[in-house]
Amino acid sequence: MEQAGPTLFQILINQRGWQDYEVFRKRYEQAAKQLAELEGPRSLATATIEKRQFFRYAHGEVRNPQTVARRILEFMFPGIPAAHLLGPVPSRSGTSPQQHAGEDRIAVEPSEYGLEDVVLAAANESAQFAAKAESSNVGPHTLEQLEADIRRILHSYPSRPIGPLFREVRSLRDRAFELLEGRQPPRYTRDLYVGAGVLCGVLANASFDLGRYDAAETQARTAFLLGELAGHNGLRSWVRGLQALIAYWDGRPADAVRLADSGTVFTPECGTAQIRLESIKARAYGQLNRGNEALAALQAADRLREGLAADDDVPGGMMAFPVEKQLFYASSTHLWLACAQHLSDAEARADQAVEMFQAAPPEQQRLGEMSLARMDLAMARLGRGDIDGAATQVHAVLAVSARRRTESVDRRVGHFSRQLALHPGAGSATGIGLREVIIAHQQRTAHELPPGGSQ
To answer: What is the set of domains in the chain, with CATH numbers?
Structure first.
């Protein structure tokens, strides 16, 4: 029997620009996947439509499609039963089917399909919007896995080589960014901002350890922005400390003081970020030879430590600022201030810090920080003429640096070498041997980032 006029299906696909088979097939398969996700069964996700069937629908050769096809078609054209969709367009008074076929658009009126169909269409449209709004690319499991990966990195960072770790953290950061670009409830968005901010902070720290200060500052600015978006004081104060630390090592102690001060306005939810800020400020004041302010900052850090709960060092790992790290920051401060008493204080604090670092299990030792504490101890011992005692510490540092090299440790070794060259004992057997070992260390090629690795 010849079709009286164009089917509603034909009119609607023409209006939507789906009249090409390949275009419609993609829309059909997309609808099948969405329907499988929303209502099931899962097997529905693989449904497709053959070219011959598509043209049969358009020409009105099928009025009652199979169940799977019917569900998908009614999902694609909400509120229109498949039998009506594949049937001819009803004629309006005074209008011929040929005129319908030539119209640019056709309106589906309540009088044509009944008010019930229009109401159902509106309900289906609202339901589809609700389903999309409720759907999320992030769930509790995704966040738990991201947080677990971040905790693992934070705790392993102090003992791992920087290059391979950098690549791993960069990949995880990219994953966090991808999740943020998707759809998730607001409560998950904040957690993602924090996670992405921590990862950018880790990349900033790694870039700093690799001597890429510009890249480190860029990563740190992004980390701080994410902390702002999350409203997370712990992250903001920790990042300000990192920025201050970069400025300190870059020879900008006044900037380090300013950045550390700006971080103190963010009272962290928990953790040791504020103690770290005061300790960094003390070192920067020491570099500026402002003894009173340096000692006041050390005292402020001690007071904050006294008020810290035993289990308050969250999230821990490289973001923690343990007592031993505070001690070697104090030793660095005293070294800057020089004079006999400060040299004695520097040696005592550095010696205590090294002992505490060594007491940790091997897999938990903070190698870079322990090396810096050893270099403080070596400098203090060199200052009072104990070259043998200084050499013991430097040899230990070079052994660690062969496995985990960082730019800050290299700089401290270079500074020690220059001071040793000026020392009265530089010509002794110990002094000569120590300088030769340091020169050999400096000639080894430093680890390099892969192309684009600092971005």
So the answer is: 8-134 (no CATH), 324-455 (1.25.40.10)
